[in-house]
Design goal:
By secondary structure, this protein is α/β, with parallel strands linked by helices. 36% of the residues lie in helices and 22% in strands. The longest helix has 13 residues, at 11-23. It is elongated and about 60 Å long. Pfam families: CheB_methylest (PF01339), Response_reg (PF00072).
Length: 346
């Protein structure tokens, strides 16, 4: 049976979360009221997964994640307040090594979380399949500067899809792309509304590209990137004169998620007649496999992250199984692989 440690400064929340996990077949071996207790509980019980609150006294969730990853790496799922501060803290925790997060509905303490019990159990179960050691690979590998020349094809488009463990890898890929490549970049990261805007801001600060959260009807050109808005599918609705027109819609979730990678990749393959590259990164499930097939059929290039550097080797594995992936690379080489697909001599 899967063993979990629940860390939250609210006794009420610890009880609710523990009850939900126990009912879902997960054995809660310990509860902790702050980060220090959480670190001690992980050392004592060696769980398969930890749920971690962000804001706590003495030692907060970010510090606790860092301490656990240093001492005894274990998959950690952050439970974050659905606020701007909560989003910023969550991304910092992901940077430190947490594999995924779930937004607490309604604030820090809310009975509404019980209505999201299935999602919590699913997230915790998914997190247990993550390899916490891969986080160190992504975070500590030296990143060589990618050469910047002007030998790129005109009007290239890049579609990047990711899920569990994806934010830090997406950030790494985008930060490695030179503005000279003049890509139009579409990012689909499985993430709830309220977090995708903050994610776009982080990417904007850490890359040479102008990154924004997607809006219905917006157009993007070279040197610009968008992040699919949480709870909306992002379609490529039109393409002309080197600019993409986007459409946001709320059709039924695909593969249980919205936004779905397949929706963006398949519409990009249908509408774009210029150079097109699809990339699938770490994550659970099969979203992106059909999209990679569509991009390949349309004459585009495809890249997948390798198993060693994935937190969860689900999305890339399913894409590779289609036979439509051109290149499989570690996280720190994905950016170079993308640039190789748009060389004007290649």
């Amino acid at each position: 049976m899967t063993k979990a440690v629940v860390v939250d400064d609210s006794h009420f929340m610890r009880t609710v979360i523990s009850d939900i996990l126990e009912e879902g077949g997960i054995d809660v071996v310990a509860q902790a009221g702050d980060g220090e207790e959480g670190v001690e509980a992980v050392t004592a019980h060696d769980p398969d997964v930890v749920t971690m609150d962000v804001e706590m006294p003495r030692m907060d969730g970010i510090e606790a994640v860092e301490e656990i990853m240093d001492r005894n790496p274990v998959p950690i799922l952050m439970l974050s307040a659905h606020t701007e501060d909560g989003a910023d803290a969550t991304f910092e925790a992901l940077e430190k090594g947490a594999v995924d997060f779930l937004a607490k509905p309604g604030g820090e303490v809310s009975t509404e979380i019980s209505a999201h019990g299935d999602a919590l159990v699913e997230k915790v179960t998914s997190a247990t399949r993550a390899d916490p050691e891969s986080v160190d690979d992504v975070n500590t590998r030296s990143s060589s500067t990618l050469e910047t020349d002007h030998g790129y094809v005109e009007n290239p488009t890049l579609v990047v899809g990711a899920s569990t463990g994806g934010p830090r890898v997406v950030e790494r890929v985008l930060s490695s792309l030179p503005l000279e490549a003049n890509l139009r970049v579409l990012v689909v990261q499985h993430m709830p509304d309220g977090f995708t805007g903050r994610f776009a801001e982080r990417l904007d600060r850490r890359s040479e590209y102008d990154v924004r959260e997607a809006e219905d009807g917006m157009r993007i050109g070279g040197g610009e990137a968008v992040v699919a808005k949480g709870d909306y599918h992002m379609e490529v609705a039109g393409y002309g004169n080197g600019r993409l027109r986007l459409r946001l819609q709320q059709d039924e979730a695909l593969h249980g998620v919205r936004p779905a990678i397949d929706v963006t990749m398949e519409t990009a393959a249908e509408k774009i007649d210029g150079p097109l590259t699809g990339v699938v990164l770490t994550g659970m499930g099969s979203d992106g496999a059909a999209g990679i097939e569509a991009i390949k059929r349309a004459g585009g290039a495809t890249v997948a992250q390798d198993e060693e550097t994935c937190s969860v080797f689900g999305i890339p594995a399913r894409a590779i199984e289609t036979g439509c992936v051109d290149s499989v690379r570690p996280a720190d080489e994905v950016g170079k692989a993308v640039l190789d697909t748009i060389r004007d001599n290649g």
